[in-house]
Amino acid sequence: xxxxGRHLCPTLLAAxxxxxxxxxxxxxxxxxxxxxxxxxxxSVEPGELVDGTYRNRSIGIRYQVPFxxxxxxxxxRPAATDPKKASVLLAVFERPPEAKGSTVNSTVVIAxxxxxxxxxxxxxxxxxGPVTELTTAKGFQPVADPYEFPVDGQPIVRRDFLRNLGGxxxxxxxxxxxxxxxxxxxxTFLGGSDEEVTELIEQLAFERVRKPSHK
Length: 215
Known about the structure:
Shape: globular
Number of strands: 12
Radius of gyration: 16 Å
Largest sheet: 8 strands, antiparallel
Number of domains: 1
CATH class: Alpha Beta
Oligomer: single chain
Number of helices: 6
CATH topology: Protein Transport Mog1p, Chain A
Distance between the termini: 41 Å
């Protein structure tokens, strides 16, 4: 298979913000392939967060944000307003990313990219090639190979990562991905333990996709 382009990986957004909040990280750039694939990304609506529940009816997802968490989605959307770039749909944190703390700042990021931004991509599992390359560059190590992880019957693929921070702290990351409508929807969960990440993943659900209206 042709080597997939090395460029933006939205699953790293959460990790980047854990170490220092940036409205638009330096690596948040679109490749030429993404520019050609803007239609697929543009077809996915941004969704909305209302009373602690995020819904995106264009791709049929629902996420219940833990009570008291901080929403930073709008700060990330300057990078998402250009359809040539990958789009952040939801970015929420246990505490403000700019606030220092002695524990891991648990995080959930949902993002969407055009599948054609990765030349040669045919399956969701292949997406984890570039994901793993970029994630390990940030100090994480994969715990196991990508594996099927259906959620409400959806063909989700998942991979888990771990980073030791020292002082008895470790950062656990699970990335889930779904190939749909010519786009890759990624779900990144970060926490201080496997149990915490599992609890965050359990808040993800899928609903009936809303059909586009015809005028």
